[in-house]
Amino acid sequence: MTRLAEILRRLQEDLGKHQAQWALVGGLAVSARAEPRFTRDVDVAVVAADDRSAESLVFSLQRSGYRVLAVVEQTHTGRIATARLIPPKEEASGIVVNLLLASSGIEPEMVRAAEILELLEGLEVPVCATAHLLVAKLLSRDNDSRPQDSLDISALSNTMTPTDWQEARRAATLIEKRRFNRGRDLIDLLNALMRSQTKTDQAKNEAE
Prior knowledge:
The chain is an alpha+beta fold. It has one domain: Beta Polymerase, domain 2. The chain contains 8 helices and 7 strands. It has helices at 3-17, 26-33, 51-63, 107-113, 130-140, 148-157, 162-177, 186-207; strands at residues 22-25, 41-46, 67-73, 80-86, 96-100, 115-120, 123-127. The strands form 2 sheets. The chain has a 5-stranded mixed beta sheet with strand order 1-2-5-4-3. Helix 5 crosses helix 7. The longest helix has 22 residues, at 186-207. The chain is globular, with a radius of gyration of 17 Å. The protein starts with a helix and ends with a helix. 37% of the residues are buried.
């Protein structure tokens, strides 16, 4: 078993002990839904009703051997957005676990819509839906500091169905309504992406 698989399995067990509701997001989820790619982080969306619940979970994981690397606050809402944790027996320069607690504001919907998939070496975990992954990537994309996001968006777009696009629009609307959109017009970004993907699909069909 790879170290990444070991950490994910341990995280699954630890989150289960604390009765946390969660779903895999980030690079591992993109690999499961679209194209396999390298990642050194384990990103999970976790349902936390408020900061008190988020802090309680982080403290519980600390008692299980995790170390807090950083805690990031969502500027517009004042909520704890992400907790970056070093897994037990892992070096600070190694694999990091990112708990997305109130990063996009739709963590409950992401977890609720997740599907159990076999991800690594027989390990079955809840994986975020493609539509939610795509919207989360549009929200976090930064071409300067996060060039991988654009590649992930392209890979995910290629797998989207009409139903997925509808769900993505609903998710983007919720993010904006809850003021987690970080000043971005997610609906406009999504519509532009959908138009671009439609042209790409049409070109492929004409070439066949």
